[in-house]
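We emphasize that the prediction below concerns an isolated chain of 341 residues; any contacts that depend on oligomerization or on bound cofactors are therefore not represented. The input was used exactly as deposited, without trimming of termini.
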Amino acid sequence: MALPFKSALILFALVTLGWTALCPGQTPPPTPDPAYGSISGTIVDQSGAVVAGARVTLAGEVPSPTQEALSGDNGQFSFANVVPGAFHLTITSAGFATQTSSGILGPGEVHFVPPIALTVAANVTDVQVHLSRTEVAEEQVKDEEKQRVLGVIPNFYVTYDPHPVSLTPRQKFELAWKTTVDPVTFAIVGGIAGVQQAQNAFSGYGQGAQGYAQRFASTYGNLVTGTFIGSAILPSLLKQDPRYFYKGTGSKRSRILYAIANSVICKGDNGRWQTNYSNILGSLAAGAISNLYYPPQNRNGAALTFENAAIGIGATAAANLVEEFLMRKLTTNTHHDSAKP
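Result of the prediction step, given as a token string:
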């Protein structure tokens, strides 16, 4: 098949050359008229280097067809059989600003135009920077880490962005870390431990500074294990998003159902809704781990673990309702006011 292909290619080239030879634009120029003149010159840039391929357009004072020529490899151009009189040259070339040159051509004159220097075009370039999904998600996380109820209490695990991007595993762990080491978190844990001490909850810990320290440690341990397992480790393994996606629109009934449903469903990293295994299994895991450090008399085995998990799911539903209808109004540093009802 190679030989016929080459033959056809040669035939095509010969036909093309024959057609080109017949084109009017390629016919030899007419014999110069002594009454006419000629114009030639050189196109250069600001450094003095020649500019090849620049388009030179000639227009004369006397009505006549406009002529065009391209500067050669040496930057030169020329026009023959030009009607005498005033003339105007317009030079254009990619990357350069349009330049003009004018003069007067006498009868039979061979006119040499001084070198025409082109300047670099002052183009306004519109540069669009497209961030990757990871970079967009990082910006969202930074925004969420600034969200605080009444400017104090962390409200990191809700996004008000109408077009949220899924988080990477690193970003999920980053959000969990920022939550557990926030000073307000320690203050809240301290308050809970104080209430437990006052009520003598987990009596096996006793009273006094030692008892308070043990209650503080167990409460903080619950928070850390629950947050990291349910909001970082499992969401990374199961490819689920641990955040609450603020709805803010629709009827009150639809928003209530949406908030409650989000205690058992969540968005996957693929953007689809699915069972929130991360939250459910995270609650069970945190409850099971807590049995390792609670006083022996407060370890009620699997029954209490499942009971606490159910309570945790109910608490999540209640928290989502508060988040949907109240927290948005009390949270500072939210960057998406369009989501506000």
